[in-house]
Fold this sequence. Notes:
WH-like_DNA-bd_sf
Amino acid sequence: MPLDETATTRRIRADKRRASALAVVLAVQALAAVFFIADVGQDLLLGGVTPHSLLEAIVAAALVIGTAFGALQMRQILIRIRQAETAMSIASGALFELIQARFQDWRLTPSEAEVAMFTLKGLDIADIAQVRGAAQGTVRAQMTKVYAKAKVSGRGQLTSLFIEDLLIASNGRGSAVREEI
């Protein structure tokens, strides 16, 4: 799974696939409805109302109604996708701003901030060293400085600082655990 993939992004991607499949089904339904409506019209012009033309009219009406309901469903999916993408954009922007503010408060150097960001994304020391083209010892030393400046003992506590800030921002409450540490 890519680093930036979340349950929400997977849900958005699934909704987009669902919308694409629904669009194909709607197109087929619409074509079938047009065919049946034209056929019913031709049958009525040539032979009047017969049981066969009445049955075709019912099928055409059902297809039109089904297509209309499908179009409403498609509209709801597209609205849900748009809302989720907007919420993700706002949340990711807010999280990025929160992280940057914390890094400034801690007076992290650009290298320390980069290492801290990779740590928050879940990379381990070896991966960070490889991505940055640095020695693992250098990355380890930078992480130690980050932890010291943030007044935490490790990756879990560093991550929990940001989660707690988001929880406080989202509902105005937070735990008193951080103040006790």
